[in-house]
């Protein structure tokens, strides 16, 4: 999922000499922050063979992820709302996701041309910032996903490296990330008690399934 240290994971895999193949099938939407079903389609993986793969996902505290999404949205995509307006807009239109992304684009960004431009540069335009992290396994709850909390692996990469069969002393370097050292992030984080319950209601399943405390 976006804002969950995707580039850092890619960097770690590259250091461990794990190379990523190009997709075998073309996609009608950007192949970026892909869901499990999109990965299976793009790489032409038979469902019965999925048991032979290790599936990993990096997760992040939903509150930190939401704040990070806000700042990344401001910097990189069409958006000029303050945090209160931002969360209100997500609350208003999140019900459209993930089944009705076109309607979300029209309502949230108020411009369908924005969607087509973002698609043309292989981006989702920020729309997947508002997906639950638990939505990425959209195949079956019976499929084993190895979840690793970003908060844990930045301190100790051993469990992740063991899962990947990498016997290397690699550190997990956060790339392209808003963190506690960012003053804008800190400003919002210091006032987050006003919004915690609202963020919890938006991502309740993530808090529960991924074991994050409010």
Describe this protein's structure.
This protein has helices at residues 6-15, 36-42, 62-76, 83-93, 101-109, 112-120, 150-153, 158-163, 183-190, 196-202, 204-209, and strands spanning 56-59, 146-149. By secondary structure, it is mostly helical. The mean pLDDT is 89. The longest helix has 15 residues, at 62-76. α3 (62-76) packs across α9 (183-190). It has eleven helices and two strands; from the N terminus they run ααβααααβααααα. A two-stranded parallel ribbon has the order 1-2.
What key attributes describe this structure?
214 residues; mainly alpha; two-stranded parallel sheet; 11 helices; globular
The low-confidence runs, each spanning 5 or more residues with pLDDT under 50, are: none
Strand content: under 5%
SS summary, helix count? 11
Rg is: 18 Å
Overall 3D geometry? globular
Layout: helices, strands, pairs:
Blueprint: H1 6-15, H2 36-42, E1 56-59, H3 62-76, H4 83-93, H5 101-109, H6 112-120, E2 146-149, H7 150-153, H8 158-163, H9 183-190, H10 196-202, H11 204-209
Parallel strand pairs: 1-2
Helix pairs in contact: 3-9
Brief rundown of the structure:
The protein has 11 helices and 2 strands; from the N terminus they run ααβααααβααααα. It is mainly alpha-helical and 214 residues long. It has a two-stranded parallel ribbon with strand order 1-2.
